[in-house]
Amino acid sequence: MNTAEGFYRNIIFKTVLFSFIIVIPSVRLFLKIDLLWLFPIYLLVVYFIFFNLKAINSSEISKRMWWLVFILLVAALSHFIYPVVSLRSNPGSTGDDAVRLSAQTLRNSAKLYDVEISSTEPISPGPAWILFNSPFVLFNLYWLFGAGYVAFAVGLLRRAVSTVFTNIFCLFMGLSMVFAELLFNGHDLLPLSMAMFSVNLLIMYYLKKDVKWVSIILISLFLGIVASSRIVFGFLPIMYFLLLKNDHRRNSYMLLIISSAVFILTNVYFFLVNDNFQPGHLIFKGITLLSLPIFLALVIIGIAAMFYLLSNDKRKSLSWNWTVFLVLSCPLIPLAYADLINSGYDFKYWEGANYLIIPLPFFILNLLNDKQVMFLTANNS
């Protein structure tokens, strides 16, 4: 394959991913607020930005502290819009109820899962995730849940990379209407996405070198909490162990042991104390959406793909962030679009679009790290 052919294949591949992860899922919000006529304008804006990344990257205005403006705007919008959305008689999302109801049991039974949203809506968040984030509920600061994690992730990225890079990252996050909707309705998948992205940055930028024991322990605990957020993310400690072990063997084993212990012990304890361990429903949901044979095939392929992508030979040619993105996307993108098919292509009620918030920040990070994409308009440079 010649250089030009490889360049254009790469651009086409990134454009397709951009469309499936950011653009297509954004249709849902325009339908929900009865402003579908705005969607063509949205399309023009997002593709104009995508195909002019070099101009944005090199402009003087991109060097200002827009990332801080983004954080403040996210916090302000959450503060004013979430309380209004949460009071609607038909909110269209039970993501906030799942965390709020579970955390409130700490004042009574502390079993987390002895409450119900409804007979048809089981609680999905895992125990360590609920316990860790219960202060947002118990101190009436739930509007800060998503905004707080966004601020943490953006602050880490700014510290690790640069102002310009972080500004463009924030711009692309803001282009996703799934991001906006989850921020406004209080669904815990947005803070989960930001927490997953943050722990990835912490491991990648800190645990590859010698650090204090307390840093290893805190990052490992955080990974365990994030892995516990959904029972299906129990593979995260193994994935990061395999990613890290060639760079720092000691840190990788500590990370694996502590994070796995958090995931296993909290799930086992609450499985034993509850008559109905509601987070387990996600496994059956996957089977329902895809059918048992396809679900099992995807699990097997996913496990094999993870070990293949993380093998020593493959790790030399594939970046850390692309590996994480591909491992997360293999199950989540098919599940998201299977839900769209299952809903009869009714975009307005396509709840599976929410799953795409998880790989979104990793995709943007890879997009901005790709010099071929960042220099799309560099033909005459």
From TrEMBL:
Alphabetized UniProt keyword annotations: Membrane, Transmembrane, Transmembrane helix
Regions that span the bilayer: 12-31, 37-53, 65-85, 136-157, 164-183, 214-241, 253-274, 286-310, 322-340, 352-368
Lineage top rank: taxon: Bacteria
Name by which UniProt lists this protein: Glycosyltransferase family 39 protein
